[in-house]
């Protein structure tokens, strides 16, 4: 990544923390329209509608309601209740779907005990409607608490998954720590602004770390052949297509069938490639976001590809 792109990324991630810009952007009809490239709408109904269209090709779905930085436990309870209703709504439509939740949305900052109770409620409900719970990974200050939460929930609800970020120096150790659980891990590159002693500043290093971690996960999944349970469900949350192709090659070389590993991608990014991978028989899941608190999330999408700012400016100025 050249210096200009790194600078733009840092500026966009810094802007993600601005309350003033948040207030301006969320009031702007033009910016709201530009977010439609990455989210079908703010309402749960918009997300379900878009999901139903995508599921027609056999793709599965993950839904997430955007939101960060809760201030009270009542809000966390409301988030849990929202997802409980959402799981019913998705099941009523017969959508092959799971939910992905940020632990801070369930009150991790306010009370780890309540957060655990809410996560257990969601995982239990998800099981009853043939769905599943994924835990997102937020900034590095939450990793320890999120791993502890995952360990507790996964023990009772085996379909639960967790995101790990390849850019963190600690992730190889975290992966080993989770191994005894036969974890479902969605490996992502990482979307937050982190200092260099915590995460790789250079994208090339993150990319290399991703590939090394992914190889390890595929190896654990391959242990499951011949009747033994797989040691891991590897999920790759990336739109990096050359990387995706290399991982498919590695999985095939290990004799891992399609479906023993998955690709998760975001709604609005590489949609044609998602359909193509699905047509080739790969397990592809599209993550659809919705909700009113989209500002920080949208800024992270711009930071991942600063060229997206051009798209936003064109929407604003015609
Ligand atoms: C399903 C899923 C769940 C995620 N969950 C988390 C999480 O819990 N915690 C977390 O920190 N991060 C999460 N992320 C975000 C992730 O960390 C990366 O920031 C993001 O996926 C971009 O990196 P990349 O792997 O796609 O590869 P990159 O190497 O950054 O991009 C590869 C190519 O993908 C395309 N692309 C990537 N991003 C965009 C974009 N915004 N707009 C348009 N094109 C783009 C471009 O063509 C680019 O060349 C998640 C991502 C996905 C797909």
Please, could you describe this protein's structure?
The protein has one domain (40-293): Alpha-Beta Barrel (TIM Barrel), CATH 3.20.20.220. The chain is 51% helix and 13% strand. It is built from 13 helices and 8 strands. The chain has helices at 3-15, 19-27, 29-34, 44-55, 73-92, 112-128, 143-156, 171-178, 203-222, 241-253, 271-279, 295-304, 308-317; strands at residues 60-65, 97-101, 133-135, 161-165, 184-188, 233-236, 262-266, 283-290. An 8-stranded parallel barrel has the order 1-2-3-4-5-6-7-8, surrounded by 7 helices. β1 (60-65), α5 and β2 (97-101) form a beta-alpha-beta unit. α1 (3-15) packs antiparallel against α12. The longest helix has 20 residues, at 73-92. It is globular, with a radius of gyration of 19 Å. Flavin-adenine dinucleotide binds at residues 136-137, 163, 165, 188-192, 237-240, 264-266, 269, 287, 301, 304-305, 308. Residues 136-137, 163, 165, 188-192, 237-240, 264-266, 269, 287, 301, 304-305, 308 line the site of flavin-adenine dinucleotide (FAD).
């Amino acid at each position: 990544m050249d210096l200009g792109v790194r600078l733009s990324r840092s500026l966009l991630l810094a802007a993600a923390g601005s309350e003033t810009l948040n207030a301006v952007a969320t009031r702007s009809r033009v910016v709201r329209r530009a977010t439609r490239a990455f989210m079908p709408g703010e309402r749960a109904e918009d997300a379900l509608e878009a999901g139903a269209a995508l599921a027609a090709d056999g793709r599965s779905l993950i839904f997430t309601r955007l939101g960060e930085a809760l201030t009270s436990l009542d809000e966390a309870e409301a988030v849990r209740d929202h997802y409980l209703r959402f799981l019913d709504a998705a099941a009523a439509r017969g959508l092959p779907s799971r939910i992905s939740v940020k632990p801070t949305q369930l009150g991790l900052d306010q009370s780890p005990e309540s957060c655990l109770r809410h996560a257990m409620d969601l995982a239990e409900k998800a099981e009853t409607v043939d769905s599943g719970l994924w835990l997102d990974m937020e900034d590095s200050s939450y990793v320890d608490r999120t791993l502890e939460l995952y360990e507790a929930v996964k023990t009772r609800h085996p379909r639960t998954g967790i995101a790990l970020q390849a850019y963190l120096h600690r992730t190889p150790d975290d992966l080993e720590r989770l191994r005894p659980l036969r974890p479902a891990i969605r490996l992502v590159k990482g979307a937050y602004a982190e200092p260099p002693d915590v995460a790789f500043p250079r994208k090339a290093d993150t990319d290399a770390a991703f590939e090394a971690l992914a190889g390890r996960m595929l190896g654990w999944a391959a242990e499951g052949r011949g009747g033994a349970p797989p040691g891991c469900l590897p999920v790759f949350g990336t739109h990096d297509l050359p990387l995706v192709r290399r991982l498919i090659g590695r999985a095939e070389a290990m004799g891992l069938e399609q479906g023993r590993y998955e690709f998760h991608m975001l709604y609005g990014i590489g949609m044609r490639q998602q359909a193509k991978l699905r047509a080739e028989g790969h397990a592809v899941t599209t993550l659809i976001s919705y909700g009113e608190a989209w500002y920080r999330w949208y800024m992270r999408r711009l930071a991942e590809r600063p060229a997206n700012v051009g798209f936003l400016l064109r929407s604003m100025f015609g």
